[in-house]
Structures
1.
Amino acid sequence: MLDFLFSGWGAFAMTLFMLLPFAAVFTYVVHRKSVVDRGPATTAPKKISNVETAWLTAVFVIFVGVNLASMKYMPTIASAHAATTRTDIQDVDLTATSWQYELSTREVEAGRPVRFSGRSSDTMHGFAVYHPNGRMLFTMMLMPGLSKPTSLIHTFEDPGTYKVRCLEYCGIAHHGMRDEITVVAAR
Ligand SMILES: [Cu+2]
């Protein structure tokens, strides 16, 4: 429903909207200090330090709270969780070579975790997967010369055709480095 906020004018409007409170406070402070009350500050230092302490505490609590609450959505944490709790993981091995992908399979099942294990045979490549609605789900950076593949576990919710794009600039035909994955309904 709120997808329009993630791109184009929607995202631009959102950015402006975020800036409005700052603009309002800035205007208020400048107006007060230049028109309403031009003298030196009369607020007691103790009172200011109390406000500062309360403000810092709130920022700290919100910062820690949001981090803890959003941790399970981080790809690394979600991958580790799926790797230790699920026994029905589907494996997709892939190798990126300028300027194409070699995949062990291009069809996976919805609802079951998929472990993408990727390597690069020549230079730095990316492996980004997009939902059919255009939203990017995740991206992996594939570095050449690593002893182990780079891996990430993702569970697809919706059947459909998912686009794959390289998001690391890798040479003259980087823009053409694309592929597709088909997600079929759970069997
Ligand atoms: Cu590329």
Note: The chain has a mean pLDDT of 91.
2.
Amino acid sequence: MKRIVIIGAGIAGLATGCYGQMNGFETEIFEMHDKPGGLCTSWKRKGYTIDGCIHHLAGASPASKLYPLWQELGATKSLDITFDKILRRTVDDDGNELNFYTDIERLRSHLLDISPGDKDLVEHYIKAIQKFTRFELLAAIGSGGLGMIRMLPHIPKIMKWGPVTLEDFAGRFRNPFIRKAFPTAQYDFPNIPMMIHLSFMAGCSGRLLGWPTGGSLEFAKRIAGHYEDLGGKIHYRSKVKRVITENDTATGIELTDGTAIMADRVISAADGYSTIYGMLGGKYTDSFIEEYYSNPPDEQEMNAYVSLGIKKDFPGLPHALTWIMTDKIELAGRSYEKLDMEIFNSRTGMAPEGGTVVRVPFTASYSYWKGLRESGEKYKAEKERISETVINRLDLFLAGLKEKVEVVDVSTPLTVERFTGNYHGMQVWMPAKKPGRTMGKGLTRTLPGLEKFHMVGQWAQGLIGISTAAILGKKLMKSICKSEGRRFVTSSA
Ligand SMILES: Cc1cc2nc3c(=O)[nH]c(=O)nc-3n(C[C@H](O)[C@H](O)[C@H](O)COP(=O)(O)OP(=O)(O)OC[C@H]3O[C@@H](n4cnc5c(N)ncnc54)[C@H](O)[C@@H]3O)c2cc1C
């Protein structure tokens, strides 16, 4: 039996392992943390669960083309999915409120109630959402030539809505509040293409996107459990120091405690930089890889969070809310005129009875936080200062919050780096040169000059998302089967 070692028990590593086991390989996963999931994680504080990942799970119901993937990975068995009635509510201090209802008819009448004068544009918007209902962008990733052919009927709408940003479209409304509120539809990304927003709205209305009750870690644990049921083995607290190579062929791994594990193939589902420059000493690169990793961004949107566990229920609030404030707020040297909130009440299972978790994302510079960490106590002091600022401001919006806060948790890019090994606590970013490469060839699925070695997950493809990570694991195992002359098979839990 061929032996494969996999580095990292994030969603990509787990999915790769599951499909490896289904296809008769002997696989083992080595994970530096004490739990599975990688970025797909949650953590507990005094009975509150703080979620670090899933806002939307693609493939949330049998209506989605991605659902069979999660079935094969054992994630769907008695899985309870919450389908939000409101994608996001945006409010301002003048009492205006825009709800992105996932019931499209309700959205239409809500928009018309706010602004009857925008009737034509509202009809145009609603029609566009309806046109996207049969389009599942995420399901097309990695599906190769056939997938591309299936995409053909969708090309006209992609061409039409791809170049228009949320902000561009918002500017077409006559109503001043909608003009201001519409760009907040997808968190803090006013410049994302309308195509993405329309896919989201269509996905939520068709129940293709949902939220797995229990949160991200519980979801990852389902896949880890299934992997073990298939006979796979996960070694936790097992950090890989280097990939062993002989004659430019990967032959195994060495852990930080010196243990060597030999294998027929090595797959890294871990961070790209530490794989290429740490575990392989930078020996297998080319000019594209060098250029990519020598220019990391210093910050990314929503890469830091203040999370609060509050002993109070705030009935009637949706899962996602944006507050456009009259007075700006300053967080870590940046000024914000709005606060995004993710809200989990006790019905979600994330807060004790009568309690609520509220998470506020902000954008953090890696070098700023790194500098603070290097000067000792300043890192902790800045976390405390930011959380105090957020609590004081939220108390104006959610009256009575301040004296009911039981848990304060601030995560920065350094937190993500420490727990998952991701370079500078970043998610994969678009390459400055050849950005189209991420859809086709990926960033680094293999490395130049190194045999029997593969990469999988966000750093291999250059795309984020847990469904993408899982698809890539399946796709990789399919190609390994092909090169070993085996017929690729799958089974459902
Ligand atoms: C705040 C946030 C919100 C998100 N929201 C969503 C969402 O709503 N929907 C969605 O689909 N996606 C979402 N994502 C994206 C998604 O979480 C990631 O794209 C996906 O989880 C990446 O999976 P991965 O397996 O490629 O990598 P990772 O999750 O990074 O897994 C890598 C694993 O390798 C391990 N590792 C690293 N180095 C070593 C080593 N030397 N030895 C052993 N093990 C090692 C790590 O501990 C980790 O477990 C979100 C991400 C973030 C940060």
Note: The radius of gyration is 23 Å.
